[in-house]
Amino acid sequence: MAAGSTQAADCDGATFTTSCTMTGTATISGAALGMAAPATQTWSTTLDGLDHQLVDVAAADTSFTVQDFTGSGAGWTVTATATQFTGTGSSSHTLAATGTLVFNGSTSSETAGATPGNRCAPSTTCTLPTTTGLTFPVDLTQDGATVYNLYDASAATGMGTIQIGSVSAGNPAAWWVNVPAGATADGYTSVITLSISSAPVAS
Fold first, then answer.
1. Which of 24, 43, 83, 193 has an alpha carbon within 20 to 30 A of 5's alpha carbon?
2. What pTM was estimated for this model as a whole?
3. Does residue 15 lie in a domain region?
């Protein structure tokens, strides 16, 4: 009969042997889900009897960054709420709460149904997000409460550090403001609140 094979003993750090086995254990811990966005959006125009569609084209203002280090593969959603544009010179001056603020993947056309592009942040690797079919442009009612979906990542995508928008990521992440011909001259402010949560829109 052929001799049976002998199973190698466990290595113990002290016993000298011709063969022993070690156990390799790698522990990978998840970290946070977060987002970094521009501090401001800025628009300006001069009244001339015409309606104006304004867009902030500054490179730093046409992108935001998502960081998903959770390791869960659950996906994520970025949402926004906004308050009504109110005059800083007089609180009685306002821009319409509907049809004024629009988020879109274009700085050349407010109405183009363009999806903002995405890329891995420079010097990083990532799994690019696959959106669940969100529709653009997003016309935000500015009541400070209604939540709008701006961008999302399906399960098993969107992991790592990802730039949404920016010139090298394809379409920008652009914010538009509509100013009617009959607007009152003033400075106007709106508080736009961005949030990120786990799981895509469709889940």
1. 24
2. 0.89
3. no
